[in-house]
C-alpha cells in the first residue's frame, strides 16, 4: 500500500483515525480466539458427549463439521443480509449469538438440539470472522495494518495452543456441559470488551451479491483464493493425521504427542508474528516463502522424519510455516482489494472454512487407500501448487 486510499476507503463522513485503536484490535483478537476455541472445542469432548447423549464418536464429530460448513456459507451471506448496518453493532450481535448458542449447547437434552446450537455457532463464526479479518484497515493507520492483522490472527494460534486444551481439561474434570458454559461466559466477557472499546464502524461499502461476484474479476483476489484453497486443504489433509504420523513414522511415544502439538501451536504463533512483520515490507515474497516452506516440510516427514529428532524438527518447521498462512493471505486480500476489503475477506473466510473440511475428507480417503505417507505427499503437492499460483501473481496490483 502506498497511500491511505489504498489501505481503506472510509465511509462517507468518516475520517481516517488520527491514532491507532489498539485496545479495539486486542478485543477483536480475543473474539477470534473465542471463535476458534468454540469451533474446535468438541474435538476434545467427542467421547464424553457421545456417551452422555448415546451417539457414536463419528456422529458426535458433527459438532465440528456442522459449524465449519455453516461458517463457510454465512461468511459471505451475513455481510450481504445486513447491508449497511454498523459493523460494531453486527459484531456485538454475533458475539451475543455465540453466548446464547453455547448456553443452548450446555443445556441440550439430546444430540439433535446440540447440533442445532452448533449451527448458530457456525453463523457467529462465519459472520464475525468475515468482518473482523479485514477490520485492521479501519482501526489503525496504514503503516500499522500488517501488525494489527497479525494480532487479530494471533487469536487463532492462541486458541490452538491454550483455548482448546484448557477447554478439554475443563470438560474432563467438570463435565462437557460445564465446558460449554465456560465458553459462553467467556463470550459474554468478549462482548463486553467489544462494547467498551470498539468505535462506530459504518459500512464503508455494503456487500452485495454483485460486489462478491466482481471480486473474481480481480486477478490478485483470484490468486489469493486459489492459494488459500490449496494451502489450507493441503495442510488439513495431513495435519488431521499428525498424531499417527508422529507415532508410526517418527516413532514418538503417544504420551509425547500432546506436548508436541502444544509446541506446534507455539511455533504457529511465532510464525504468525514473524510473517506479520515481513508482510509490511514484501507481501508477495512472504506468502511465496510460506507456501514453499509448507511444500517442503510436509513431505520431508516421509524422507527425514523417520526418527524422533527429525520428526520433532520438521513438526516445528511445519508449525512456523503454517502460522503465517492466515495473516499472509488476509493481508494479500487487503492489498489486492483495497476498495472491497469486506467482500474479498468474506469470500476468503468462506474458502478457508470449506478447505478445512475438504482437507480432512481428502486426507481420510488417501490414508484409507494408500498410507500415512500419502497424506504428507498430498499436503506437499497442494502447497507446491499454491506456490506456483502465488508466483504467477507477481506484479499484481497492491503486491508490488
From TrEMBL:
The keyword Metal-binding does not apply. This is MFS transporter. InterPro entries: MFS (IPR011701), MFS_dom (IPR020846), MFS_Efflux_Transporters (IPR050189), MFS_trans_sf (IPR036259). The chain crosses the membrane at residues 22-41, 61-82, 89-109, 115-137, 149-170, 176-203, 224-242, 262-280, 287-304, 310-334, 346-366, 372-390. Keywords: Cell membrane, Membrane, Transmembrane, Transmembrane helix. It comes from Streptomyces millisiae. Pfam families: MFS_1. Its main location: membrane. It comes from the Bacteria. It is a multi-pass membrane protein. SUPFAM superfamilies: MFS general substrate transporter (SSF103473). Residues 24-397 form the Major facilitator superfamily (MFS) profile domain. The keyword Plastid does not apply. It is found in: Cell membrane.
Amino acid at each position: 500500500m502506498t497511500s491511505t486510499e489504498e489501505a481503506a476507503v472510509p465511509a462517507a463522513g468518516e475520517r481516517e483515525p488520527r491514532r491507532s485503536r489498539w485496545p479495539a484490535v486486542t478485543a477483536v483478537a480475543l473474539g477470534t480466539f473465542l471463535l476458534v476455541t468454540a469451533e474446535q472445542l468438541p474435538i476434545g469432548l467427542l467421547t464424553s458427549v457421545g456417551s452422555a447423549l448415546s451417539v457414536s464418536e463419528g456422529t458426535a464429530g458433527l459438532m465440528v463439521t456442522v459449524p465449519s460448513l455453516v461458517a463457510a456459507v454465512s461468511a459471505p451471506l451475513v455481510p450481504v443480509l445486513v447491508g449497511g448496518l454498523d459493523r460494531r453493532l453486527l459484531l456485538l450481535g454475533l458475539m451475543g449469538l455465540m453466548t446464547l448458542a453455547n448456553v443452548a449447547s450446555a443445556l441440550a437434552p439430546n444430540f439433535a438440539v446440540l447440533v442445532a446450537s452448533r449451527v448458530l455457532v457456525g453463523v457467529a463464526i462465519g459472520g464475525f470472522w468475515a468482518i473482523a479479518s479485514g477490520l485492521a484497515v479501519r482501526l489503525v493507520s496504514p503503516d500499522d495494518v500488517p501488525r494489527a492483522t497479525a494480532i487479530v490472527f494471533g487469536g487463532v494460534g492462541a486458541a490452538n495452543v491454550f483455548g482448546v486444551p484448557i477447554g478439554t481439561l475443563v470438560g474432563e474434570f467438570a463435565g462437557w456441559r460445564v465446558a460449554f458454559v465456560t465458553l459462553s461466559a467467556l463470550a459474554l466477557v468478549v462482548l463486553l470488551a467489544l462494547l467498551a472499546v470498539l468505535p462506530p464502524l459504518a459500512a464503508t461499502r455494503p456487500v452485495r451479491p454483485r460486489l462478491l461476484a466482481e471480486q473474481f474479476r480481480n486477478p490478485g483476489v483470484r490468486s489469493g483464493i486459489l492459494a488459500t484453497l490449496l494451502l489450507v486443504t493441503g495442510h488439513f489433509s495431513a495435519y488431521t493425521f499428525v498424531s499417527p504420523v508422529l507415532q508410526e513414522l517418527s516413532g514418538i511415544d503417544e504420551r509425547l504427542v500432546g506436548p508436541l502439538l502444544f509446541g506446534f501451536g507455539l511455533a504457529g504463533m511465532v510464525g504468525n508474528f514473524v510473517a506479520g512483520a515481513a508482510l509490511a515490507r514484501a507481501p508477495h515474497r512472504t506468502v511465496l516463502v510460506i507456501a514453499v516452506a509448507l511444500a517442503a516440510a510436509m513431505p520431508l516427514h516421509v524422507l527425514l522424519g523417520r526418527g524422533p529428532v527429525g520428526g520433532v524438527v520438521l513438526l516445528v518447521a511445519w508449525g512456523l510455516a503454517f502460522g503465517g498462512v492466515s495473516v499472509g493471505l488476509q493481508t494479500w486480500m487487503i492489498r489486492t482489494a483495497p476498495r472491497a476489503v469486506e467482500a474479498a475477506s468474506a469470500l476468503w473466510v468462506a474458502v478457508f472454512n470449506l478447505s478445512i473440511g475438504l482437507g480432512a475428507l481428502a486426507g481420510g480417503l488417501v490414508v484409507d487407500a494408500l498410507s500415512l505417507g500419502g497424506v504428507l505427499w498430498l499436503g506437499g503437492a497442494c502447497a507446491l501448487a499454491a506456490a506456483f499460483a502465488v508466483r504467477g501473481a507477481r506484479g499484481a496490483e497492491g503486491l508490488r
